[in-house]
Specification:
single chain, alpha+beta, Beta-lactamase, seven-stranded antiparallel sheet, three-stranded antiparallel sheet
């Protein structure tokens, strides 16, 4: 497999580990970028990007990053907090009056960001096309009764997060949430990152497909069993209502929409660049960065049925939990995306890391491919 890009010789073992991913015949395409102290030390890509394996993954190939998108939305919300346009502990209904329905009048932005608001799913079955109807989705969430007493527990809002945080951003900024997020995070840093992708960029988007024959770890199997056997369970509703959440990634309408929980498009460079921008203070001041990265939720996740640990819109490291550690330092923060992509920062090593793949693995949190790359990176530092 021909590996494209560049790396500093000190990181040759990481380049070799990246190349070794392609020993698996199922591995289609991937990219890896690492910054240390704000300098890019590894920027690699390889494999194929299209459905049929004919088109090479190029330097400008981008992919759907799924939940790697969430911290971009959270940082935007925190910037608005810093400007006095939102408040972490004010009721969401102050900005979104309809949200006060069904016992949610006291729910705060902080609870939304830390997955504690009780809104990871919608009970009433929605039509498939609701996925692309912003008004329908925000109205359904405004009417939804929390699945638990807000603030008492946490459960990952896999996709509802995008409408909940996105609607708050939209209301205070008076423009599409993706426009605000990109303008406030990606544009100032010159990152090739999009929420609401222009049609003219579609030619360079990697086609995403699942790997076959791998059942994943215990957490993945547990979640799969529930979603297959319990149609009305919270976890099932979170991932299948509206239907088509999990099957839309390659569709034009999915790429075009502005859904800041799950449909950001970018490359490994844009993930590493974003986290470098958090480490160097470009995106948030120290006080707001502390809010982002301070533990807000820890324990059994009502949605994912595994132990999770969150700050405000980012996942925090759990060094002793196999599927929940980035693999570098205990202070690391970031976010995995469904199927294997991940971006994170490790402040102790001043590392910003981005890995993107178009071969989806079955894991619930961290993908072992990325974890192996990070363990190799650690030996190089």
């Amino acid at each position: 497999m021909q590996i494209q890009g560049h790396y500093e010789l000190k990181f040759e073992a990481l380049r070799d580990a990246f190349a070794a991913l392609f020993d698996d015949p199922q591995e289609r395409g991937a990219a890896l970028c690492v910054q240390v102290g704000g300098q890019t030390v590894v920027d690699l890509w390889a494999g194929t990007a299209d459905k049929d394996g004919q088109q090479a993954w190029h330097t400008d190939t981008i992919a759907n990053l799924f939940s790697c998108t969430k911290p971009f939305a959270a940082v935007t919300a925190l910037q608005l907090v810093g400007e006095g346009k939102l408040a972490l502990d004010a009721p969401v209904a102050r900005y979104w009056p309809e949200f006060a329905q069904a016992g949610k009048q006291a729910v705060t932005l902080r609870q939304l960001l830390s997955h504690r608001a009780g809104l990871p799913a919608i009970r009433q079955l929605l039509p498939a096309e609701a996925l692309y109807d912003w008004q329908a989705m925000t109205a359904a969430l405004a009417a939804e009764q929390p699945w638990w007493t807000p603030g008492s527990e946490h459960g990952y809002a896999a996709i509802t997060y995008g409408w909940l945080i996105g609607e708050l951003i939209r209301r205070v900024e008076q423009r599409g949430p993706g426009e605000s997020i990109v303008a406030r995070t990606a544009a100032p840093l010159g990152l090739d990152f999009h929420i609401g992708l222009a049609d003219k960029e579609f030619y360079r988007v990697a086609h995403i497909a699942r790997g076959k024959g791998n059942a994943g770890d215990a957490a993945a199997q547990r979640l799969l069993q529930v979603t297959m056997r319990e149609p009305e369970a919270l976890s099932t509703r979170a991932f299948t209502n509206p239907p088509a959440i999990l099957t839309s990634t390659n569709k034009p309408e999915w790429r075009r929409m502005q859904q800041p929980a799950a449909n950001g498009h970018g490359n490994a460079r844009s993930l590493a660049g974003f986290y470098a921008g958090l480490l160097d203070g470009s995106l948030l001041d120290a006080e707001l960065l502390d809010e982002l990265t301070r533990e807000h939720s820890l324990g059994d996740d009502r949605t994912l049925l595994t132990q999770t640990r969150f700050g405000l819109g980012c996942m925090l490291d759990q060094p002793h939990v196999a599927n929940a550690t980035f693999g570098l330092g205990a202070k690391a923060f970031g976010h995995p995306g469904a199927g294997g992509s991940v971006g994170f920062a490790d402040p102790e090593h001043d590392v910003a890391f981005g890995f993107v793949t178009n071969t989806l693995g079955p894991y619930v949190l961290m993908d072992p491919r990325a974890q192996h790359l990070v363990r190799t990176l650690r030996t190089c530092l």
